[in-house]
Amino acid sequence: MPDLPYRRIAIAGGSRGIGAALALAMAGPGQELWLCAREGLPLEETARDCRAKGARVQCRSCDLSQPGAAAAWLDEIGERGPPDLLIVAAGIFGGRPDGAEGTPETVTRQVIAVNLTGALALAEAGALRMRRAGRGQIVLLGSLAARDPLPDAPAYSASKAGLACYARALRADLAGSGVGVLLVEPGHVETRQTAQHQGSLPLLMSPPAAAERILRALDRGRDCLAFPRRAVLALWLLDLLPTAWRLALLRRHRFSVRNLAPPAPPVARGRGGQG
Ligand SMILES: NC(=O)c1ccc[n+]([C@@H]2O[C@H](COP(=O)([O-])OP(=O)(O)OC[C@H]3O[C@@H](n4cnc5c(N)ncnc54)[C@H](OP(=O)(O)O)[C@@H]3O)[C@@H](O)[C@H]2O)c1
User: How far is the CA of 193 from the centre of ligand 1 (A)?
Assistant: First the structure.
């Protein structure tokens, strides 16, 4: 794992999956981590594992799709200035349930609220604070679904395409400010998200393997990272085909989605102690 210069690290969606793998990969003596997600228990479990590696960790239970939640979380972190690194990994998956003809409207609205509106609100709030400080790095978790939209998860694909577009705009806006923006577009990574995906999962990767690629891209100062490479190449080749051929080839990868009910809203301010 590369030795990165970030000491104060905020990870939205740091309780599970890719966000938790990134937290664990960067946890160590001298590191300060702030993790947020809606459910308190998985947050505390990840925080415990990071503390065991010597990091100081604070948790916040919050729903980033709620207006003001992103700014409030960053204000709480920012007594000594903004974090060095802000990772926006909070996201949900949703789409067409088994046997249904389309995606329920509630799912579409929720996916856009979290993956697009919530992610943008957090990135905007982070960018504002980092620009004033003249330094910082933002990482946005998009998806290969932005490059090849999924007919069984159209709102999810749209949310990630919107995020990819936003990342380009934000990067241009922040040029010369000392603040970097990395857009990460993963293929299938074995998390709660892929457990919801009822269908084939080609080139499935583990969260630590995904985290390692992301940290290497940060180390190299990259603007954009899409992986695994074989999937990126396959999508590029598919795009050269006439639409009818492409759709015929992709038919065997159609899937359905076990949509999850959102967790109950956080009741108390779930602040974890410092480790
Ligand atoms: N796994 C894949 O195959 C894959 C592929 C491409 C892109 N991605 C993207 O990578 C990111 C991480 O996904 P993952 O696979 O690690 O999923 P995951 O295991 O389901 O983790 C998602 C994280 O986001 C948090 N979260 C969800 N909604 C939130 C909200 N409203 N406010 C605050 N936190 C929220 C979750 O905690 P709570 O549920 O407790 O809030 C959890 O910590 C997502 O943006 C996802 O779309 C994943």
Answer: 7
pTM: predicted TM-score of the whole model, two decimal places: 0.95
Is residue 22 in contact with ligand 1, taking CB distance under 6 Å? no
Query: Which of 11, 22, 35, 38 is the best mutation target for the ligand 1 pocket, counting ligand atoms within 8 Å of the beta carbon and taking the most?
Result: 38
Span 55-111, pLDDT tens digits: 999 999 999 999 999 999 999 998 788 999 999 999 999 999 999 999 999 999 999
List the domains of the chain with CATH numbers: 8-257 (3.40.50.720)
CB atoms within 10 A of CB 208: 15
| 136-165 burial: b if 16+ Cβ within 10 Å, else e | bbbbbbbbbbbbbebebbbbbbbbbbbbbe
Indicate which residue's Cα is closest to atom 9 of ligand 1. Answer: 141
Residue from 113, 110, 170, 111 nearest 140 by CA: 170
